[in-house]
Structures are given as structure tokens and as C-alpha cells.
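Sorry, can you check?
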Amino acid sequence: MKKTILWILVFTGFMYAFIGLHNSIEQEKTIKKIKVQTTIDSLQNVIDSLCYEIDTLQWESQIWDFNISHNTTHLLSAIMYVESSYNDSAYNSYEDAVGCLQIRKTMVNDVNRILRRQKSDLRFTYDDRWLRNRSIKMFDIYCKHYGLTTAEEIARCWNGGPRGMQNEMTAGYWKKVKNQLDS
């Protein structure tokens, strides 16, 4: 009888030790997974930060390139400020104008029509209006197609369409952009 009780106690102790060891191993695996996930999250934050810096540099480069090719001083930047205060998420529900350049669907359609005439495979979607680099590309295509060269021409035609220079309503818009250029 004593041997049986002793064996039961030894067996129970062995089982508790085995279960404890198993739980300890599972705990270590969980800790390793958490450490790996934390490292991944940390690296993702670094990647996101670098992507933001790259986006900013691309945006600055695009503005620089645009200003050089159109011989203007920060015109695109001034227009972005007037349109949205540089807000890529800006939305005007009244006009359905979207993004940093407040692009409407008709502008996307016009740019795509221009690209079709040029036999280009490039096309834009309405969602592209939310993306700064795509908006700037549409802006550039539009200005080049309509032969807009002066800062006033570019600003007024961006605001009022290809015949914006003839539209007196765009004069106030030009004044806002010019104030930004002068500041």
C-alpha cells in the first residue's frame, strides 16, 4: 500500500513538473512571438517614417521641377496653399473637389482625354485626386497641354478652365495665389 501511494505521489509530482515545463516553454514561445511582433511593428514605423520622408522629398522635387520647367517661383506650392492649405485629405462636397489641388472629376476626365489624344497608356482614376504626386502629375499634363506659361495664366486657368484668362471670376483667385507668391 505504501508503495502504491508513493508511486502515485511520484507520478503526480512528475505530471505537475511536466505540465509546468510545458507551460514554461509555451510562455517562452509567446514571449518570443511578442518580441518578434514588437520588432516588426517598430520596423514598420521606421519604414512608414522613411516613406513619409520620401513622399515629402518627391513632392518638393516635383514642385521644384514644375517651377523650373515653367520658370516660376513656387507657383505650384502657392496654388496648393490657396486650394487646400497643403491638405491631401481636403474635400469640398459642394464641388466634389478633392485633395491638395482640389481636383474635380471633370478635370480627371479632361486629363484622361488629353492622354488618349497623345496616345499615352497613362490614365488617372478619381481616387488619384487624393494622392499628391498623382495630382501634381495631372496638373502638369493640364498646364502643358493648354500651353500655359505665365504664373497668372496657370493659376487662372487652373481655377477657371482652359478659358480662365477670359473669366473675370478667376482674377480674385489669381490675387490669392499672387499674395502667396509675394509672401
